[in-house]
Write a structure and sequence with these properties.
Strand order of the largest sheet: 1-2
CATH class: Alpha Beta
Structural class: mainly alpha
Largest sheet: 2 strands, antiparallel
Strand content: 5-15%
Distance between the termini: 36 Å
Number of domains: 1
């Protein structure tokens, strides 16, 4: 798949890193990675539907893409992708007003 990230997508990515992990109360140290929401069943990555996650919540033992727990279990613990995306988008809107 070609990388179709625009300058706006790069700006969003940079802002996600600054906001930190989307999981409420996440205190895991380390770098923030970008998680593309709603990519199951062969769906294409949408760079507008992204959230920032610490490595642990993205790929670690408690990660949504870590292959150690299913997506349903992860969402029952930390919130659905829809909920987290809405929360992140509100935070990004607020950050843009500063």
């Amino acid at each position: 798949m070609a990388n179709n990230r625009t300058a706006a997508h790069k700006k969003r990515h940079d802002m996600l890193v600054k906001l930190g992990c989307a999981v409420e109360g996440a205190f895991h140290a380390g770098r923030i990675t970008v998680h593309h929401c709603f990519t199951g069943l062969g769906r294409r990555k949408d760079h507008d539907k992204t959230i920032g996650l610490c490595w642990e919540h993205h790929l670690g033992a408690t990660g949504i893409d870590g292959k150690r727990m299913g997506k349903r279990v992860w969402e029952s613990l930390f919130g659905t992708e829809e909920q987290l995306l809405e929360k992140v988008n509100r935070r990004l809107e607020h950050a843009g007003q500063d």
